[in-house]
Amino acid sequence: MARTITFQKAINEALDQEMDRDPTVVVFGEDVAGGQGAGGELDAWGGVLGVTKGLYHKHPGRVLDTPISESAFIGAAVGAACSGLRPVAELMFVDFMGVCFDQIFNQGAKLRYMFGGKARVPMVIRTMWGAGIRAASQHSQSLYSIFTHVPGLKVAVPSTPYDAKGLLIAAIRDDDPVIFFENKVLYTVEGEVPEESYTIPFGEANVVREGDDVSVVAIGRMVGMARQAAEELAADGIDVEIVDLRTTSPLDEDTIYETVERTGRLVVVDEDNPRCGMAADISALVAQNCFDDLQAPVQMVTAPHTPPPFTGSLEDLYVPSAARIAEAVRKTAGGRVGAAS
Amino acid sequence: MTTGQEAPAGVTKLGMPKWGLSMREGKVTDWLVEVGEEVAEGTELFEVETEKIDGAVESPAAGVLRRRVAEVGAVVPVGGLVGVLADPSVADADVDAFVAAFQASFVPEEAEGEAEAPTRTVEVGGRRLRYLERAPDQPAGDPVVLLHGFGGDLNNWLFNTDKLAERRRVRALDLPGHGESAKDVGAGDVAAFAEVLGGFLDAVGAGRAHLVGHSMGGAVALAYALEHPDRVASLTLVAAAGLGDDINADYVDGFVAAERRRELKGVLELLFADQGLVSRKLVDDVLRYKRLDGVEAALGTVAGAMYPSGRQVTVLVEELDRLEAPVLVIWGEQDRVLPAAHAQALAGRGRVEVLAAGHSPHMEAANDVNRLVAGFLDDVERPG
Fold it and tell me: Do B292 and A197 touch (CB under 8 A)?
């Protein structure tokens, strides 16, 4: 039965159901088991924002605390995955990933290639991303493009509770390493989610709104921003189609090209920084493959090329807003669609 | 539920219908009658487009169309006012007063928060089955049970449930392996589903019922009626399986195999004469179902048990002589899944209606099907 739950609960449920289904699934990270018995707490904290709360007692011995050493426990995840477990490691903020690049880029991503397909690395690294909670530069970056860049990794960036559960279950069952991006601002967002387990295949973008005038390709939290912009633009007679990528690796190029072929106008919305990011990559793909379909230059709406600011007023300007998306759509539409046509 | 002014005598509210559990609003895409035009009950008044499917809305009464409250292009919440029909004797001022009073007091369903769970579940033979129940305050006659086809669910009856429930208690069931029912299909053949149907009738306390089955659900209803004539008040077979061994294997195999939207869309288009009815939302809903754990195995078992090598295993034509229940057969002449010629197996045994539609006349020609079924049930229950 589908019922309405939060994004955070959807993640918790995916982990819980996969641990029930498969005894090789283990969860570890900082404070996923800690906190129990302290200060009147009976349960573990379940990680810094409580996403894994409730799992510790339900799955004895399979929810493990790690030292505050990301390089060590991400290395352990690669090793565990190579030797028969399906580890789900929680790396609190993606900003901390830098200290474990060797484990991820040089080991996890490459083992299957190096051993001619005979090795498997069924590992998931869950991590929080995105600005918007006044947590400053070291806790607010987007960074999925860095992992998308590396062959051998898969990257999921869900935008809804439904997608979060289905993509996480698919990630856990996948035999390749997956970096699973959870936007912390989305944790409290609610949506309809089936009680049963289900999977969403990687590399299938979702058209979340159909429209004829301008295509918007968006990622993660930006999908909701694009929806807000689309409502505003609809009132002006501009009909926006929104494509939610859901995974950046593999990338569903076909759905991007199909929408651009229909509308001839593209805005890419990406909360990441602009240089060498998803927005630039998608713009280049479209320029290369849909040049004849384009009726206007592609617009990119991204964060600026700066670290996320700590000052609240600046942080609010840093994250692409519905207003900026609407402005970009109007620019690419150039008055040639909607009410004016 | 929704509030809004009750219509005064001689005035009929034309509201936005609710087609299916998830519908919240609909867009008026065309008006089929002019203001001032006299219409009969059942005249098609306006076309509605929803996120999932399009359809025409019929007039609930005879009268003159007095107001188009929602013009073409307007989006109206379920239960909201689309137009007003009234007797010519009703003054314009009274019509306007009704419109004003209705609009002032109407609150869309969604704004009032979650209503009670629209569907129910019941345990049958160790399986949890979901069903939708609709009934008027004083239901007439035996209840009606609606049985969907292969890969379908109770939402396939979105245009029919409320209409048939104007007079009778109606229950639309998710068969095992389908919709939100348990995914264990047992042997997955017609007999196994017929047994589940019997268990369902017991569980909901329906001693006798009118069975309405589409496609695979038709074969299930027919098989049950042959085994339990005392419990089947009538049988309505909509593009039913079990009446010949032909079946379009591309549909069955394609439905089981399709993993992505593009593949599935092509398969679902086989269900309709008008392929434009296969909206993105329709495809997405089926994909969501197909991606539930256990569904792939369930569909594989059913397809293997009922339709191996592109033929139907259970053909009940030879047994029709011992069928006791009155029968109505409805088929779409452009059916691309089961040949419309199969309808003739029951010619002489019951009424056969072939409509301008594909494999899903209950969706594509919903108003005709509703009228045929309601009239048939009335005839069956008419004393003498």
Answer: yes
